[in-house]
């Protein structure tokens, strides 16, 4: 049964979470009518981009807990369940965190979801839907701890050169893909930053090509220098595609024609995977090109603060993780202190 209408003066649409999941529509939040909520609850939204991205919270896993769905416009909706519903409290959020840990999710993923729940509690308390004491208890729930450091993937200069190798038969698609790889490898851009790059963003400052006022993660604005070899690949793509304004990287159809207003970050992932397969590089992801850019800059003698500016990191500790520095025991830094004992 998809849903049923309740009797009474205020008729509501009810749909259990089990019905939605059984029908294979886990994101069918549009079936829950807005009139199932009070006007005060509707004023909760928007909560924020990360909260909207999560879209659903399953507190502590199981039908006995409430299901909360966030629609595309950021509004909070409830999926009614036939099981008894627990109150929104610190104990429920703690069980929710334990449920996420049991699913073996990454600490960063768990912390993002808990941050969304904390924000929900804050907005609910601010709207008078939750007592301040309960909201304070929920906000005191600590996130998951990160134990150890993940092993990153960096390319050597030879591997990066092989990745940028010009194909034997050049097509419009190959020119676009080569320019995208060059921008990620030479400028250290993220996927989302790459797909949003516009022709007007390329400007000249101090006799050098740059990407001006690039808005990155967390709405941080930075300026990214563009090496000459990266600019040449972009020029080849622009000349072949005939793009004179707007988004630089766009779709290419089977007949080698440009269409659409841009590409998706998922398309960038496929481009990197295809290039890695041609070069014989295993396990390469788009973000590995950003790490490689940072390490190659460091190997070439780049200063740490300049690499931080290039990548747009708010903390220098984040930049240090991107460099992937290792302790050199064969050529230790304290071998040549200039001290001799007779």
Record the SSE blueprint:
Layout: E1 4-5, E2 13-14, H1 17-22, H2 39-42, H3 49-54, E3 56-58, E4 67-70, E5 76-79, H4 90-102, H5 107-126, H6 132-139, H7 157-163, H8 172-187, H9 191-195, E6 202-205, E7 208-215, E8 221-225, H10 228-241, E9 251-252, E10 258-259, H11 265-279, H12 286-299, H13 304-311, H14 316-323
Antiparallel strand pairs: 1-2, 3-4, 4-5, 6-7, 7-8, 9-10
Helix pairs in contact: 4-5, 4-6, 5-6, 8-10, 8-12, 13-14
Features:
single chain, 342 residues, alpha+beta, 2 domains, three-stranded antiparallel sheet, 11% strand
Q: Kindly state the number of beta strands.
A: 10
Query: In DSSP terms, counting alpha (H) and pi (I) runs of 4 or more, how many helices?
Result: 14
Taking Cα atoms only, what radius of gyration do you get, to the nearest Å? 26 Å
Q: What overall geometry do the principal axes of the alpha carbons give?
A: globular
Query: What name goes with the CATH superfamily of the largest domain?
Result: Intergrase catalytic core
Relative helix content: 40-55%
Describe this structure in words.
By secondary structure, the protein is an alpha+beta fold. The chain folds into two domains: 4-139, no CATH class; 157-323, hpI Integrase, Chain A (Orthogonal Bundle). Helix content is 42%, strand content 11%. It has helices spanning 17-22, 39-42, 49-54, 90-102, 107-126, 132-139, 157-163, 172-187, 191-195, 228-241, 265-279, 286-299, 304-311, 316-323, and strands at 4-5, 13-14, 56-58, 67-70, 76-79, 202-205, 208-215, 221-225, 251-252, 258-259. The strands form four sheets. A three-stranded antiparallel sheet has the order 3-4-5. A hairpin with an 8-residue loop joins β3 (56-58) and β4. α8 (172-187) runs antiparallel to α10 (228-241) and α13 crosses α14. The longest helix has 20 residues, at 107-126. The radius of gyration is 26 Å and the shape is globular.
